[in-house]
Amino acid sequence: MNAVVLASGGLDSTVAAAVAKQDGCLLYLLTIAYGQRHGIEVERAREIGTVLGAKGYLVLDLDLRKIGGSALTGGGPVPKDRTEAERRQGIPPTYVPARNTIFLALALAYAESLPAGRIYFGANVLDYSGYPDCRPEYLKAFEEVARLGTKAGAAGRAVEIKAPLLMMSKAEIIRRGMDLGAPLYLTHSCYDPTPSGLACGRCDSCRIRREGFRGAGLADPVRYAQE
To answer: In the structure, what pLDDT confidence band is assigned to residue 128 with cuts at 50, 70 and 90?
Structure first.
């Protein structure tokens, strides 16, 4: 079966791609270059696709900076040094308005065109930073949209939305990735990297990643500007 994987170049999407490969799917990776300040992830996603033997790799340019509303697209500073408790209080400024809805819609269009029966998405509800579009009820609702709003769905061939990491901790995701041989050394998680592409080590995403590797009892292969 063909499967579209939303590939950000980060830990979760990389492990989700490895799960799709283990499931016997032919991988078609889709990466969105949306004007994110951490644009290095686009190139990392391409490298990850090569290592995983992806059948196809597509990059779509969609400049969400024109909409704004997020620290990731230049709308203010990225929060740093926040505790887990602080991360769980409200929706952070790194939320990009409707990003996952936009991305999943594009993945759905790609899946219909291939055709592909599944979309793999690295959403996670346990370690997420307050993003409403990573919740199980959201993904279930989008799957219904995919069924109702597509030619494939009308023909009884609805595209399935797979979020295999949804209920896993970051440590569990890392261990799963290691077990599957996912190229975690290529992944980029930082929201605010240095000009040379070095992870800051202090943003929410870096902290969640580092806590996950510590919890898994493994060394993080990524270097940080602040250790």
So the answer is: low
Which domains occur in the chain, in start order? 2-216 (3.40.50.620)
Task: Take residue 105 and report the two structure tokens written for it.
Answer: 């819609």
First to last CA, the chain: 42
CB atoms within 10 A of CB 35: 19
Q: Could you say which DSSP state residue 193 is in?
A: -
Q: What is the mean pLDDT of the chain?
A: 93
Examine the pLDDT at 19 and tell me if it is beyond 60.
yes
**Tally of residues, the chain:** 227
Rounded CA gap, 133 and 205, in Å? 16
Q: Which residue type occupies 174?
A: I
Place of tokens 């409403």: 132
Is residue 173 within 8 Å of 165, Cβ to Cβ?
yes
pTM: 0.94
DSSP H helix total and E strand total for the chain = 8, 5
Token pair recorded at residue 97 = 């308005």
**Range in 35-44, 76-85, 105-114, 123-132 the model is least confident about:** 123-132
Q: Strands 2-6, 118-120: parallel, antiparallel or unpaired by DSSP?
A: parallel
d(C-alpha 182, C-alpha 17), whole Å: 8
Cα–Cα dist 10/206, whole Å? 11
Asked if pLDDT for residue 140 goes beyond 60, the answer is: yes
Please answer whether residues 104 and 121 qualify as being in contact, where contact means their C-beta atoms are separated by less than 8 angstroms.
yes
Cα–Cα dist 50/55, whole Å: 9
